[in-house]
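Blinded run. Sample ID left blank on purpose so nobody reads anything into the name before looking at the predicted structure. Input follows.
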Amino acid sequence: MIVFDKFHGVRQGVAAGDEVRRAETRQDAAARTQWEKTCWLWRKNPEGWTEREALRWEQLKGKPRVTGLAFAMRLELQRAYAAVTASQARSRFVKWGQWVRAEAEALTRGLLEPMRKAADMVERHREGILGHWPQGLTTAFLEGLNSLFSATQRKARGYRSSEYQTAMLYFVAGKLKIPYYG
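Blinded prediction complete.
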């Protein structure tokens, strides 16, 4: 069974919300002024906001903008991933997709199109997403190692053989210190 990691699903929601924000600021001068310097506010979870960001949120709260709706949709997608059982998660994902599609159809300017595409992706890959619950699998550790290896490859540029690169990977992944004689 192919299992899709939570990180990738949520990343799609964050990216779609960001696209909505950019599209709205391009179309609406009032939104451009209102959303000025709020890019990271929409990308973070409310629990991770600084005091300044929380204050900025209070200023924006209640102002009807599509970006705020996309943000709420993204947070709801994350809540769906917090389900305890696969059947509960399935129900949440289905309801979330229906909600996103209904809102996207109701808006005439098409600003929620990126969120609708994210909902379509979740629907297409729902079984793989739901595979996480019975299997208890996550690729977080492997993703972290992959990131570490990519950084090591960038650091190791100039080494002329894969043998040296492999040695660097062992040093980094094993958290070994390169001895210094000086």
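Unblinding after everyone has recorded impressions. The CA atoms of residues 49 and 55 lie 9 Å apart.
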